[in-house]
Amino acid sequence: MVAAIAVTCLSSSMLAKETKEEIPIPIVLNSSNIPGNDGGPRSSVDLIRAYYDDDFSCVYATLSNAGVEVEVEFVNHTTNETDSYVIPGTGSSILPISGTSGYWTITFILADGSVYVGNFVI
User: Fold this and answer.
1) Can you tell me the distance from the alpha carbon of 96 to that of 52, in angstroms, rounded to the nearest whole number?
2) Which of 60, 72, 81, 111 is the most buried (most CB within 10 A)?
3) Closest to 28 in 3D by CA, of 42, 38, 47
């Protein structure tokens, strides 16, 4: 009987995965304050990957070697809504947000002072 429940849960999870919309969030280094840098954005594809999941109104973030802890800040520029979290610098984290429509910015602040930023619209 327990196995049947596990199979049912797995099937529901797989169905949800097929119907939800995932919005990738390109994350770039905000390098304007780094001496000797031209201020242009740099990709963080190897350090931070993130996407917004509209079924669960959350951002999934995967970090590799970003330090012990990372501050994460959200701003919805359309509604002025904000939220913040502290997450581990390695591994995956689920960051719930309201899901309110608008133009959002997510900012990752690493312990060494590096700032990575991404924008998305929901």
Assistant:
1) 10
2) 72
3) 42
The string of DSSP letters for 90-117 reads SEEEEEE----SSEEEEEEEETTS-EEE
DSSP 54-87: TTTTEEEEEESS--SEEEEEEEETTTTEEEEEEE
Read off the pLDDT of residues 17-41 as tens digits, 9 standing for 90 and up: 455 689 999 999 886 645 455 555 5
What is the per-residue pLDDT across 43-52, written as a single tens digit (0 to 9) for each? 555 799 999 9
User: Which residue bears the tokens 């999941």?
Assistant: 53
Query: For the chain, what is the domain count?
Result: 1
91 in a structural domain: yes
How many whole angstroms separate alpha carbon 8 and alpha carbon 46?
35
- In this structure, is residue 111 part of a structural domain? yes
Which pLDDT score is estimated for 119? Answer: 97
Between the two ends of the chain, the Cα-to-Cα distance in Å is 41
Angle at 67 between CA 113 and CA 115, to 5 degrees: 30
Residue 6 maps to a domain: no
